[in-house]
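Anyone? Bumping this.
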Amino acid sequence: MARLTQISSNALQEKWKFKTTQELVMLALTGVLLVSFSIFLPGFFGVNNFLVLLNSIAILGILSLGMGMIIMSRGIDLSEVAVMAGSWAIVLIFVDQGTSLPLAVFASLVFALAVGAFSGAVIAFIEAPALFVTLAVSFVVYGIVFWMSPSLVHYVPQDATALRFFGSGKLMGVPMPIIIFMSCALVMHLFLSRSVPGRFLYAQGDNPWAARLTGIPLRPLIVFEYMIVALLAWIAGLVWVGTSGSVQMTVVQSPYIFDVILVVILGGVSLVGGRGHTLSIVAGCLFIGTMLNALTIMNVSSDVQNIIRGSVLLLAIVIDNFIHPRDEETARQGD
Amino acid sequence: MSATKTKSDHQMQPVVEIRGGSKIYDGVHAISEVDFTLLPGEIHALTGENGAGKSTLSKVIAGAINLTHGEHLLDGITVNHKSPRQALDAGVCMVYQETSLVPTMTVAQNIELGNEKLINRNRKINIKAQQLLQSLNFHIDPVTPVALLGTAKRQMVEIARAVYNKARIIIFDEPTASLTPEEIVHFFNLLRNLKNSGVSIIYISHALEESLQISDRITVLRDGRKVLCALTQDMDRDKLVEAMVGSRKLTTPGRTGQAKSNRPPRGAKVLSVENVTMGNMVKNMSFSVYANEVVGISGLIGSGRTEIAKIISGAEKRNIINGGTIKFHGKPIRYRVPRQATKDGIAYITEDRKADGFFETMNVDENIYLAKLATRPGWRIFFSKAERRKLADYWIQRLNIMALNRKSTIIEYSGGNQQKVVIAKSLVQEPSVVIFDEPTRGVDVGAIPQIHEQIRQLAAEGKAVVVISSYLPEVLAVSDRILVAKLGRIVADFPSEEATEDKIMYAAIH
């Protein structure tokens, strides 16, 4: 009974602290995987492979930062991948039609933010469920892009080296995707743990009704949150275009968005809302990245990879329930 | 305590007996070494402050949880319930604080729940339910969906379900918390009927007067230990409070408000509510609130008293056409969201702190500081830990919050301390009008006088204070003026010198 902890709060405090850090469990598991793969898997250990590993999770990681944040606030954004692909497809379509690259990039940034603001406004002011609003928005974005240019793949023009730099370039020997991911994570961390809007976000995720009565500006906050998610989707798109040299619109129809959610839940961002940190998301990313990298080295087919991915998600949910049991007894605590 | 036990022992065999029962959660004793007996056909009151272990003990008896140590006997036979289902088979039934009915099902379906056969005919269960409800003298239509029933009727359905399941032992957890005084009278008659038909009842309540009125024996728990078990006729309120609180001192003994003559005269009109209407709940409600004054609003649940508070504070919206006017310092107001009200200095302190009062994943400091950040003068981009600490220190000291471990999340605190944090959260925004809705619901006895004192102090500081409460002694103790709400209107307005419990009740019902 939680309320009894006052009797010997110190004893429980130790335990409580340990309990809430699912991300530490994830980091430890990642460490175990890293060490065991390094020992048993030839070709895994090495600076180059580690850079490849980090590189491969950068896009997923940037998307997860947005998704994790929005899930902490009790929302969800299923349009993230559509915004990522859609906004950069627009850049390439514009450039193809003769617009200058910087102008096209600027237009796509405005487009992404507008989509985020629109979803946020519908969710905040009309109070429609985020799940359906963002699902619908993802179809709209997909439709707009196809209406502009009915092509599944858009290529980056040869002369756009600036774009390539963000995917394949290096800064002081570190690939740009890693630098972008890490800076996004750092900014997100500062936002969530130090800034006042970050505190409001946690308050909203913890108890939106209390947040409303307290006088927290919930509606502007929600619009702002969905704009941040869209911005992160746009940044992820930048890395993606730079890495692959093209935009494949098929990704919108793929289950990629569920990979993003997998990472977020795996790291310990609870679907209940108000719980989780930036570290949780990063830990989830590292774990998935390590696993997928090892599976690729072991030459495991994508079908088997899917089975493993699904099992890991199930395992994560089971562990989460084991660490934070939500039975009647705990639900009634503190009344 | 041992005297009573031996006396009862050779009278008759207890139906339930706990010997040296302990339950340990995470190394903390929720109850420890508790002895408890329940005799056939008795009403046994179980009292104690929040966190004293009442709920744990009753859950053990109901079979929802098992003892860590100790013996649990049912009719003299050691039992080890594996699930509530087995306890139910043994005739033990618990009527929960939050009702455990399925809202979308009808009354009859809820009563039948858990006993369905493979194929059910609605007509048959409706007839059965109708007969049962009539035999209990409950006026409820068995085909109504439970969602449409009020709290009191839901409770009746729960009781009917317990009777239907042939319960020999019924545990009531705060059964009267949401009942009106009239309904409480009916409820007590029902309890006596059940008792006369041989049912043993465990009655858990905060309201000491009720426990004294209805029970045969009283057991008091404190910090998970049994401190007292005595015949009710030997007990009175003061003895009970002493047993519950122990050596800790109450800041104000008994009721506050003895210094009524010293209260300052009321100041300017701050808030005036004129003919406010909202749907069916509030109809043409009018009243005014002045500075330096505490206005008590009494009335039954559903009289519109909570709704008017929510309308004033922007949590709900009054009718757009013919909705009436609300003036704050003479200026008409109509808020779309509570934020506008808090900005103007109108604070609403919720009746249900768990649902919309505090942030359960955060500690005391964070809860208080968040409210400050939500105001315009408190706003900043990056928050300051030093400021947070300073602010929390001030309020913890001012409201006497027992924050033993500042890192603990607020959900780990007792009801009284949680309530104080919720109050601090509102006061930190420096409101000029403070509306308290049920300020002491689910608050430990020791903290009630402290909260009343704070309410008086706010009025002395020149704020306009509204206190909405079902608990008449509370309204009488803190208010300068008492309004009575009935069916969405204010039907009476008493100065506190003239008001009595009888007058208020009469106005609220007739």
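Late reply, but here is one note on the structure posted above: Residues 1-10, 249-258 of chain B have pLDDT under 50 and may be disordered.
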